[in-house]
Amino acid sequence: PPGDSPPEPLSAPAEAAAPQDPNDFYTLELEPPTFEATLDAALPAALADPTPTTPIVSAAEPTGDHALGDTDLVDLVLRGQGGLSGLALRMIRAQANLPELTLAPLDQSFPDHHAAAPVVQDDHHFGHLHTPIPAPYHGATEARLQTWADWLVRWLRLEAQFSRLRDLAMRDELTGAWNRRYFNHFLKKIVDRAAEDRQQVTLMVFDIDDFKSYNDAYGHAAGDEILRGVAQLMRDCVRAHDVVARIGGDEFAVIFWDAGQRRKPDSKHPNDVLNAAKRFQRAVIDHRFPKLLDKAAGNLTISGGLAGFPWDGRSPHELLEFADALAMRSKQPGKNAITFGPGVAPPAPATPPGTPPRKGL
User: Fold this and answer.
1) Residue 46: is its pLDDT beyond 60?
2) What is the rounded CA–CA span in Å between residue 210 and residue 213?
């Protein structure tokens, strides 16, 4: 907590509560974890004296939001799942005894009778902390809010910096897709989860047909434009939680997995995957790449393979190997095709294992 003197030591964190939904670990948003710490409020003293003071640490065992501490914020930053501002606001509300405290973004107004303090440092502006308060206490509360705002802005900047560094480490700089490092990490996690929960995962591997010829004929700037465009077209055709990664020069992979929500109420995995693959294949053909001039549309195509867990592979390595083999098969003859194995359109139970893959798109 903020103040002129260092904060009192926090108590050891208790074990975090298990997520209610087993999918939470893999979604981009997590409910803030709950840990034990020692925090309390000193509202009467702050109202009497406009000088910001370090919050008083209570000797009583804290409960609920009073039990939140900086260790909770550190844990959230390290997880990289977002939600720090919400958890920090809960801490401030509990410790400052300001239950209606709110963080208003820059583009959002707040009532004139509210006490407010800007959450700003250098050229980083995150909005205003504000709360309704009786008029006689405006000055005192604004001073207290500014102390908390100065504390909060440092946490928000730290979260933003960690997020930027994480993206630099896990994103492909050219296309904005995930890179091979993140792909390998996520595929292992999601396959382990699917094995435990008996869920399906579909892996698509594809590359751009004759990509080198476009590079040679139109230059590397045109090749970069193609890679960026194809990656964006793929992202537009899949669900927000599906993972699109660049795993090689012009080679991409997509991890389709079920996060408890379907694209349509009656849609089913892997039908969604086949439909997404068809839309993507058509989108690449129809897209105009300005740097390709006379070959702007109708000529550039992709070829790929779709493999499903657990039918086509029971480990990340097997799944990737099978999808890659199917992608190679799509190149013969004619290219511009997507081949899928038994695991993408599961056969009837009586069909023996090893059913040949189908070149269906």
Assistant:
1) no
2) 6
Sign of CA pseudo-dihedral 289, 292, 294, 300? negative
Which stretches within the chain are classed as H helix? 43-48, 70-79, 84-96, 138-170, 180-197, 211-218, 220-237, 271-286, 316-330
Average pLDDT over residues 48-59: 41
Gap between the Cα atoms of 100 and 93, Å rounded: 7
Q: Are 174 and 227 in contact (CB under 8 A)?
A: yes
DSSP-derived letter for residue 60 is: S
Q: How confident is the model at residue 358, as a pLDDT?
A: 54
Kindly state the tokens that stand for 330. Answer: 């799509």
Six-digit token string for 108: 């959002």
| pLDDT: which is higher, 168 or 246 | 246
Cα radius of gyration (the chain): 27
Is the separation of the CB atoms in 131 and 97 below 8 Å? no
Separation between Cα atoms, residue 140 and residue 142, nearest integer Å? 6
- Is this prediction's pTM over 0.70? no
| Inter-CA distances, 265 with 26, 236, 261, 271, 278, Å | 21, 19, 8, 13, 20
Render pLDDT for 139-165 as a digit per residue (tens, 0 to 9).
Answer: 778 898 999 999 999 999 999 999 899
Distance CA 272, CA 286 (A): 21
What span, in angstroms and rounded, lies between the C-alpha atoms of 208 and 235?
16
- pLDDT tens per residue across span 8-27: 433 333 443 444 443 433 32
Q: Is 219 left (phi over 0), alpha (psi -120 to 50) or beta?
A: left
